[in-house]
Design goal:
Largest interface: A-B, 39 and 47 residues
Order of helices and strands of chain A: HEEHEHEHEEHEHEHEHEHHEHHHHEEEE
CATH topology of the largest domain in chain A: Rossmann fold
Shape of chain B: globular
Structural class of chain B: mainly alpha
Number of strands of chain B: 4
CATH class of the largest domain in chain A: Alpha Beta
Radius of gyration of chain A: 20 Å
Strand order of the largest sheet of chain B: 1-4
Helix content of chain A: 40-55%
Strand order of the largest sheet of chain A: 8-7-9-10-11-14-15
CATH architecture of the largest domain in chain A: 3-Layer(aba) Sandwich
Radius of gyration of chain B: 20 Å
Distance between the termini of chain A: 42 Å
Number of helices of chain B: 11
Oligomer: heterodimer
Largest sheet of chain B: 2 strands, antiparallel
Strand content of chain A: 15-25%
Chain lengths: ~375, ~325
């Protein structure tokens, strides 16, 4: 029932996108203007991810507009709720809006997979700030993003080993229980984490939106594992870690970037979340932005501590804007610019994409932990 | 297949399955009571449950001003807070049940609508409640504060008798027993059973049909509200779509036991709760739904009216 309504809403939203109804204009009268689309979950249980990312896109755009550019840029915002079926209905509307010459996103791997057919048909270049599933840039995968898809984050081929490494760091005789949420993201990350686990005590796939984790807790306890790695999203991770702690599990809880949300400690309860080890193919914006940028970001958004994937979204938006600054106003021109260009990240790093859309040389995977209910960055994992 | 887990966790899985089963039983009573009287599936009951979980959080946080990061409560304040939240959730769901009947079904009954009309009306009501909550809550999960410190009475054969687990089981037994006695022994309960057996004859006997139907929805709402309270107290979180999976499980419970049959709902809930735990533990969580619905199909093939059938006449015991 709910999915039907979501689909209906998505169709309406898609229609709105075609006619530019939801365009957030940052332009006035100008000789030339183009649009960039932004696609991420802005409602739904993972809304915080998209909302954080949107602040970065808006901020990059505000910096661009402050230079009074010859080509004005509008941001067209699409809310896919992080759901594949909603994304699949949104994408054709965005793809058919010819004013849009590039798309920042989609944020989630499953939503990206579902959107690709429409974007490939429309030859719309994409730069995702947080879709980490390996197959998206694997030419041999049945659903891959070649040639339009690029991303500015390390994929799970990098994050999986980093997560496996960080989860057991300092643990004597680690024995790991691996749990995924059966989503495109969670299963993908688990697939690249598993081979890097020296001693696997057991594994399980628990569907998203499960309420009761007691049977999984029983299995973890029976296996004698002292490290649990969860590959899924924050709302379910909060329920799971709470059930683990209530069930008497005292070992390490580790998870990937899907759990790196400011809401995670609050939803899990600070005591249950304390010490959780998290990785993300991202570094905090406040660690790489200049003080002046941080002041401007806070002034624009009202946020003092930027959330997850702000750095990568800022980079993705600036890459598009760098091409537009060169006079690019078509999708074909943008595709060429992204494929052959060399760009500067906010940390001063050079970003160039390989043939299939990943950053050449890979991107950093950060290590985080929960201390006193707050996410704390520890450095590269 | 992981049979090793049974060595140390067999009784733990049984205990958790029974506790989960009681939550299913309480929700399924909402379905089974209404079916017994009106022969219709009130699909909106899953959303009544969802509203109940939010009502519990509202009672604890909004009305009694407990913060989400507040310390656990003790003594009288704990009992008062839990009792208030339980009653609040039950009353909200009971009233909502009456409203659902008034808005979605009464006019259709008066017009003698066909079953399809009731079905569409039930689904529409469910969607209205679901989407309204989604919009109001911005689709965000809502965390309930840990007011009940989850201490344990002790472990027996690996089964951890935690306070919340024990509370759900004991309360579930009491609520079920009270409802069972109400339906079998009281004048109003007999009226419900009379309507269940024959609307026409009930009218001839002077029973106010609309009042009995409203009462049935109210009682179904009360038990669903109690389930919502226990769910929120145990899992400490809710979301706009929480009713979907649990509603489906409760509906399965009712069908397994024999829809319209109160005691059937009880045994169906126990069976489903334990089956889910063992299927997840032995085969893996990804096989839970496959196992449950395979068993459901097999049961219906052998016993089309559920394990206990639609009993003598509906809403029977």
């Amino acid at each position: 029932m709910n999915k039907k309504v979501q689909r209906s809403l998505a169709v309406v939203s898609a229609a709105a996108l075609v006619f530019g109804v939801s365009a957030v204009s940052s332009a006035t009268a100008a000789p030339k203007s183009v649009s960039l689309a932004f696609q991420a979950p802005l409602t739904g249980s993972n809304a915080l991810t998209g909302q954080d990312e949107l602040t970065a896109a808006r901020f990059a755009l505000s910096e661009y507009n402050a230079t009074n550019p010859a080509i004005k840029v509008e941001l067209v915002i699409a809310d896919d709720q992080g759901l594949a079926d909603v994304a699949a209905l949104l994408a054709p509307g965005i793809a058919s809006n010819k004013k849009i010459i590039g798309l920042i996103g989609p944020a989630f791997s499953g939503a990206t997979q579902a959107s690709l057919p429409a974007y490939k048909a429309g030859r719309l270049p994409l730069i995702s700030m947080s879709a980490t599933r390996v197959s998206l840039t694997d030419r041999r995968a049945p659903v891959n993003g070649f040639p339009i898809f690029k991303r500015v984050v390390a994929n799970d081929k990098f994050q999986g080993p980093a997560l496996a490494r960080y989860a057991v760091k300092g643990v004597a005789s680690p024995s790991v229980y691996l749990v995924d949420d059966k989503t495109a993201y969670g299963k993908g990350l688990a697939d690249y984490t598993k081979p890097n686990i020296a001693k696997l005590a057991g594994s399980d796939s628990v569907p998203e939106n499960t309420s009761d984790y007691t049977s999984v807790v029983a299995k973890v306890k029976a296996s004698g594992a002292n490290v649990v790695i969860y590959c899924g999203y924050a709302p379910d991770a909060a329920k799971f870690v709470k059930a683990l702690r209530d069930g008497g599990y005292t070992g390490i809880f580790a998870a990937g970037d899907g759990v790196l949300k400011a809401t995670f400690p609050n939803n899990a309860g600070n005591a249950a979340a304390e010490g959780a080890r998290l990785t993300a193919a991202d570094v905090p914006f406040e660690d790489v932005a200049t003080p002046a940028q941080m002041v401007a970001y806070t002034k624009l958004t009202g946020i003092k501590v930027p959330g997850s994937y702000v750095t990568s979204t800022y980079n993705a938006t600036n890459i598009f804007l760098a091409c537009i600054k060169q006079g690019i106003v078509t999708r074909a021109g943008m595709q060429n610019c992204l494929t052959n260009g060399s760009f500067k990240g906010v940390a001063g790093d050079t970003i160039r994409f390989d043939r299939y859309g990943d950053i050449i040389g890979g991107a950093a995977v950060g290590a985080f932990t929960i201390k006193a209910g707050k996410i704390t960055y520890l450095g590269v994992a | 297949m992981n049979l090793q887990v049974l060595e140390s966790q067999f009784w733990s899985l049984c205990l958790q399955g029974v506790a989960l089963g009681f939550i299913y039983v309480l929700i399924s009573l909402g379905y089974t009571m209404v079916y017994g009287v009106l022969r219709l599936i009130n699909f909106a009951n899953s959303e009544v449950f969802m509203i109940g979980t939010f009502a519990t959080v509202v009672a604890q946080v909004g009305i009694l001003q407990n913060q989400t990061d507040s310390q656990s409560l003790h003594g009288f304040r704990l009992i008062y807070t839990l009792a208030f939240a339980l009653v609040f959730s039950m009353v909200v769901c009971g009233i909502l049940g009456i409203l659902v009947e008034l808005v979605a079904y009464r006019r259709l009954r008066a017009l003698g609508a066909k079953p399809l009309g009731f079905l569409i009306s039930a689904i529409a009501t469910s969607i209205v409640l679901l989407e309204t909550t989604r919009i109001v809550t911005f689709s965000r999960p809502q965390t309930s504060p840990r007011l009940l410190d989850k201490w344990s009475f002790g472990e027996v054969a690996g089964a951890n008798f935690r306070i919340d687990t024990v509370m759900v089981i004991i309360s579930g037994v009491i609520i079920f027993f009270v409802l069972d006695r109400f339906v079998t022994k009281t004048r109003l309960g007999k009226a419900i059973r009379a309507v269940s057996m024959s609307e026409e004859n009930s009218k001839l006997m002077g029973i106010n049909l609309n009042r009995v139907v409203s009462l049935t929805f109210f009682i179904g709402g009360l038990t669903t509200g109690a389930a919502a309270f226990f769910y929120t107290t145990v899992y400490e979180t809710t979301q706009f779509n929480v009713g979907f999976n649990l509603g489906l499980a409760a509906f399965t419970t009712a069908v397994l036991g024999g829809i319209g049959n109160l005691r059937g709902a009880f045994y169906g809930g126990m069976f489903l709760g334990v089956l889910e735990q063992f299927a997840s533990a032995i085969l893996g969580s990804q096989w839970k739904s496959v196992t449950v619905f395979t068993v459901l199909v097999l049961v219906l093939l052998l016993k089309p009216n559920g394990i206990f059938g639609e009993a003598v006449q509906q809403t029977r015991t």
